[in-house]
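Progress against Task 2.4 (sequence-to-structure conversion) is shown through the following example record, which the project officer requested during the mid-term review.
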Amino acid sequence: GRKCMGLGGMIRDGLAIPPGFATTLVAYNKFLELTGLNKEIAAYFEKNKGKMEADLRVNDVRIFGEAEKYIGNLIETQSMPAELEEEILSFYHQLGKQCQVDDVPVAVRSSGPVSMPGQFDTFLHVEGEEALLEKIIKVWSSSYNARSMAYRLQRGMSLENSPIGIAIMKMVNARSSGVMFTLDPLNGDRSVITIEGSWGLGESLVSGQVTPDTFTLNKVTMEITKRTIGEKAIEMIGGPDGEVISVEVDEKRRNIPCITEEEIYGLGKLGKKVEAKYKLPQDIEWAVDDDLPASDNLVLLQTRPETVWNKKEIKPLYDSKKSAMDHIVSKLMAGEKIG
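Structure tokens generated for the chain above:
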């Protein structure tokens, strides 16, 4: 899938990401084939696809909920076929040895072949063989949730076959986490880097449950030009039974920065490096991993091109009519070498 492809590219480019492995689109199709579900699902759509298309045209989505329930039950009541189970658990054990942790907690993150933000499920803090296999099947099942089926049908994509890859990555012991844009997301200003963060896992920030800390850096000088410290009343952490739970942040930490000055500068440098490699402003997910030494504790969870301002027409960084100094400053902003 696209997410796994992006993570593989980050590894090749020497960027720090959590260790892990992936299941392929072929594994998804193999699961449906070995369980015989591919035929049952095809038969269901042969019978119901026409009604689904007609109902969608009049914004009646009730049949999609019915389809999700029916197909989800078909998939999620299946056991993992032996040959897939053996291969997945072999990689899981290797990851445990690499991290020196038995039953290493992992994030099970969906990775579709095309960009479909928010359509498929992702699970955090999954621990142990049984839980891992169960969550992988649940992610595969989310290919047929109501919103993803309606999304595909609206866009003329295949309704019957939508394979999902899965990234299985060591769960970061996140003291803090957040997002970073290598521009200003409010006005598209490419001369700055914007970092947002909060305590714990990033779900509290993404879901809008907290007001994050926000830091703005000048992309050339790396000076922090603006900082706003939010009241971070809750944080998401791994619970005792392997789930993600929300807990209150103690009073002392609520109104202090969730990352240090050194970590702000370190993230800014990583942001410039990523943007220079991919030649476009980036939307980056990051975390501070407390399992790693302070000098090497910044990890990137995902990077993708920023989706709003990249689509808008902008003036080129270099104009032949500009001065040499303008050219130098433009290159510095992009993190490129001069000369």
